[in-house]
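User: Hey, my collaborator sent me this sequence without any context and asked if I could get a structure. I don't really work with proteins. Can you help?
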Amino acid sequence: MSNKTFIFDLDGVIVDTAKYHFLAWQRLASQLGIEFTPEHNEQLKGVSRVRSLDLILKLGKIEALQEDKNKWLIQKNTEYLSYIEKVDQTEILPGVLSVLNYLKEHQQNIVLGSASKNARPILEKTGIIHYFDVIVDGNDVTNAKPDPEVFLQGAKKMNVTPNNCIVFEDSVAGIQAANIANMISIGIGEKEVLHEAQFVFPNFTHIDTTFLENLLKK
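Assistant: No problem. I've predicted the 3D structure and written it out in structure-token form, which is a compact way to encode the shape of the chain:
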């Protein structure tokens, strides 16, 4: 059984903090008189905070000064942080812990590769930070997915080659980034949306040990 490196995205893969981003953006949008729906929110998956705000303003056909944008970005993040302040182990998505435990037991490398600048506090609050050998988050990278920077940095920090890495992602941009990096891409979500991934599962409860064993043999 070979040693692989498993790279996990955070929002929507390990924890369901994506809903808090949505609520924070929705609140800001409604203050600006913009209707912001869950459908609109799909377009923000895996997208940076700055780019997300631009998309929302475009939605409302609003032109804004940079100083206003900066103020709104801070407001959105403060709102989001107030939500994740209350995060605990109940936020961990179904099946995630059993996969993490399996990988730990089989001495595999586990890396976090997330655009979130709040990744560490979330992993600490949910009590799973000890599973991760390396954490690469929004504070370490300059390019947003589909640029593969976040995953390539994870591989580099682990001193492994990209073709020995396996990525779990829930966004189209994240799957594209994994594919560009020449890593195995596993989508967590809907097959129709994540069709570019090599494998797709609705959630981690559908990933059994046989599948993981086969990955380790590749």
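In plain terms: The chain has two domains: 5-16+89-217, 18-84. You can pass these tokens on to your collaborator as they are.
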